[in-house]
Design goal:
Layout (H helix, E strand, L loop, with lengths): L15 E4 L13 E4 L34
Length: about 70
């Protein structure tokens, strides 16, 4: 017995935003980061398009915070 995939369509679109600007646009970045633009819900990769790859940001401290417990 064959099973059929249930495809769930979502009528919305997530807005695209660009973080940073290159020299042509008055910034100092070599590669600006674009996020958003999906027309599917998260983790539903077959139902729509994901034009921009996921971006991850984090912060690295060079000194330990003073308010942390030993």
């Amino acid at each position: 017995m064959e099973t059929q995939s249930v495809i769930e369509k979502w009528p919305g679109v997530i807005s695209t935003i660009t973080i940073g600007a290159n020299n042509e646009n008055g910034g100092s970045r070599i590669n600006p980061v674009k996020i958003g633009g999906q027309n599917s819900l998260p983790l539903l990769f077959k139902e729509g398009e994901i034009p921009n790859p996921p971006a991850i940001a984090f912060e690295i401290w060079d000194t330990p915070p003073q308010d942390w417990d030993e």
